[in-house]
Known about the structure:
Chain A has helices spanning 2-28, 43-53, 59-71, 86-121, 126-140, 143-157, 169-199, 202-209, 214-226, 228-242, 246-251, 258-266, 270-298. Chain A has 309 residues and is mainly α. In chain A, α4 runs parallel beside α13, α7 crosses α9 (214-226) and α12 (258-266) packs across α13. Chain A is flat, with a radius of gyration of 24 Å. Chain B has 541 residues and is of the alpha+beta class. Among the domains of chain B are: 67-101 and 111-187, Dipeptide-binding Protein, Domain 1 (Dipeptide-binding Protein, domain 1, Alpha-Beta Complex), CATH 3.90.76.10; 288-511, Dipeptide-binding Protein, domain 3 (Roll), CATH 3.10.105. Chain B has 19 helices and 23 strands. In chain B, strands 11, 12, 13, 16, 17, 18 and 19 form a 7-stranded mixed beta sheet that branches. In chain B, α10 (305-313) runs antiparallel to α14 (362-376) and α18 packs antiparallel against α19 (484-500). Mean pLDDT of chain B is 90; it is low at 1-32. At the A-B interface, α2, α4 and α6 of A face α7 and α16 of B.
Amino acid sequence: MRKYLIKRVFYMILTLFLVATITFFLMKLMPGTPYSNQQKMTPQQIHIMNEQYGLNKPVWQQYLIYILGMLHGDLGTSFQFSNQPVSYLIASRIGPSAQLGAQAMIFGVFFGIIIGSIAAINRNTWVDTTATIVSIIGKSVPNFVLAVLLQYYIALKLGWFPIADWGNFSYTVLPTIALGVGPLAETARFVRTGMVDVLNSDYIELARAKGMSKFGIVYHHALRNSLIPLVTLIGPYTVALMTGSMVIENIFSIPGIGEQFVKSILVNDYPTIMGVTMLFSAGLVAVILLTDIVYGIIDPRIRLSGNGD
Amino acid sequence: MKLNKLAKLAAVVAFSAVALAACGSKSSSTASKQVLNWNENSELPTMDLSKATDVVSFDMLNNSMEGIYRLGKDSKIEPGLATKTQVSNDGMKYVFTLRKNAKWSNGDKVTAKDFVYSWQRTVNPKTASQYAYLFSGIKNADAIMAGKKAVSTLGIKADGNYKLTVTLEKKLPYFKLLMGFPVFFPQNQKAVKQYGSKYGTASKYMVYDGPFKMTKWTGSNLSWTLKKNNDYWDKKNVKLSAINFKVNKSNTTAYNLYQSGKLDETNLGAEQAKQLKGSKDYVVRRGATTFYLEFNQTKKEFQNQKIRQAISMVINRKQFVNKVLGDGSTVAKGYVSTGLAKHNGVDFATAAYVKSGTESNIAEAKKLWAEGLKELGVKNLSFSILSDDTDAGNNTTQFLQSAIEENLKGAKVSVENVPFKTRLSRSENGQFDVVVSGWGADFSDPISFLDLFTSDNSYNNGKWKNTEYDKLIQASKTTDAGNANKRWNDLVKAEKILMKDQGIAPIYQQANATLVKSKVKGVIYNPAGVNYNFKDAYIAK
């Protein structure tokens, strides 16, 4: 197990290094400068600015400087937010995104499992059909449409929750629902399919023959097995949600990281592009590792240090 | 019976809740009488005036800081820190006497030295200010920015604490207007040194000398407040006790907040603007930005004036701004935006209006097009139109494509919508046939626009050339710089030449449609440079 983990961590670092390298060089291929007033600066002024920021050096030198800085924990300073260290920008913005993403995931997975299970147990009845329709709608209605509807009817018309902004828990409810409906639908679909398979298997027949209650069978035998495919899905999904959804953050005016990422690319804010990309990649590789470990726990058939390793 | 009791109880609870809620809102509305709740569409990137580049930063600086002058309604110069201004006969030297009762929020007095320090800091290449070019014309500024002279040689000097002398190396007829722009405001050296790299990155790492002081800005959050500055020299004329700014990037969200009373002002998207045009709160903020077609005149086909004119004449601008954009933007009368500058009561855009430059005339266009093609010796002409990949950019190219292909026989138009930075790079490198460009004025003077199309100007991407035009612009800066009438006439003539020759084809003047609660009074909006001045704003009873 230890050997396996060391090997995996090594691969993780290698992956991150490759991501940093590729992103850096791709980013430098983008036309334009990182200066927001580029349009009004003469080529000579741009040249002076480039000198100040070290952007006139060959790209490989800039790359080495960046990587060395990153190894020392220095992600540089943002161009959009003058003088603001990228690490501060990320630190102050990731909180709301992470909280919202986690809440949406918990909401989605929890209700997804319930709806999926109910649908599987009542297969081919109106309950199943209703659950399927709910999942299809949840999957196909874009979350921003839902967000706008929730904001208008629940917040503005009924006044149950704040329209926008970020504060106590009540501010998070509507964005959580809007963001969580996607994972809810996906989870429900996976759980239903998985459970229908499991419920048809022999050992469930045996449990039934032994006289176990319906709930007991579902909870103890069927659910655990049908969750395995879900684990693969949840990991990357969580990372994607926690690193920010630009649209939902914009609609509910949440100070999250989502928009920073997109905007930094549009305005050539090199240090921010790198910082946020690295954060996203680090989260993703960490979650993939975690997923593999969790696999071993919920499914004893998968051995981390098994023969294959 | 029991149920009945319960129902009664519920009714009492509900009633008291409503009553209490009503009380609550009543008391809070009295308390917040002189508080304005303002919407912003994007974050505040910096409060360091040497580094600011965007409208939000400039708006915040303009209201929390003060320089020699403030810009009032119609960009009129109003007293700021200067109590007296003396200009030398040749217009090359300005001596300002500063008021003695101006204070920084850290208790220091605002002195002439703060101006010297601030200006030297901005032009220092190490500061990497993106607006330093506005200093061009002040003695040695260009040489300092190019790293050829020491910052101490800049033409600004403090004689004691309250006398400031500025020396120019060429005449700047709009110099006073510049003094109302935040890049020329003073900075407190002590604060800049004390906060170091954190200076201007949060409201607490900053000192203020303007009508308001900023609080609650962390450097990356979406809300902050400008509170009345009780140390401000003219505090008796500042009526608002606070302005709360909230960033809502979604216009729908901002409109919902406006409807619920949480905002007193909001920006409208194009669709919203079309629907809310009739509302009594509807206010259009006309900017000093013109969008126009630039033709690549290094290419033979666009050197032909008739081809350029034909393309311009098939554009039904009225239909375009009303039906396609619908965001309050107006038809461009010419290149220099309407409402930017007036002389003897006449707007520049009216004085320099050339009908053929921006009117739609399909019959004439067809004729000119046929003649143009004949002169070029071709039957068909294919070209591409480059623009931004924004909604407005996409709409513009689609509209142009169909207008041109429908009306001009043998024209084949392809469209390219690319990200803003890509568009800029391609424009600068001449990689385009026709490009939809936009230009906004930094200050309320036509030269802020017209300078662009002199033949040696680096922003003249289409490479349009006209010696008469160059001469007029040169005269406006030299021989006629001291004579307001002559200078005005030079500029009017120059624009007329540009339009008659169809060097560019202006399309629309950008505007923002907004809603403002009718109780909000006295907000000053200027199209060029800094937009908002809240010093005189108040909430009517």
